[in-house]
Write a structure and sequence with these properties.
112 residues, mainly beta, six-stranded antiparallel β-sheet, two-stranded antiparallel ribbon
Length: 112
Amino acid sequence: MLEYTATQVGWRSGSRFAHALDGGVVGHLESAGGSTLEGQFGVEAVLRQEEVLCCDNAALPTSSFGIRFALRGELALYRTWAMVAQAGLRTADHLLEIKILPTFAVGVRVRF
């Protein structure tokens, strides 16, 4: 994954790009009707060329390591369509002053 941090001139310095690597395991259950429940657990690393500094001396280090986990569900509506929701947490330093990053996504899945 490649992350980009937008800037406003004068209040922030450091790398604009970071590489995020992760690896983990996934447990997956699927019903006969196509609905699924999935759990994910893994480790992650965020690597930057230089430390990122902000206005109140907060900093994102050049390397940060953490764990991540997520729970994902799909509710099958038809054979090819499903509603999808995922929630999780990441602990590597992705954003300034946020030590635990919550993630949430909703959408529609289409199988061909």
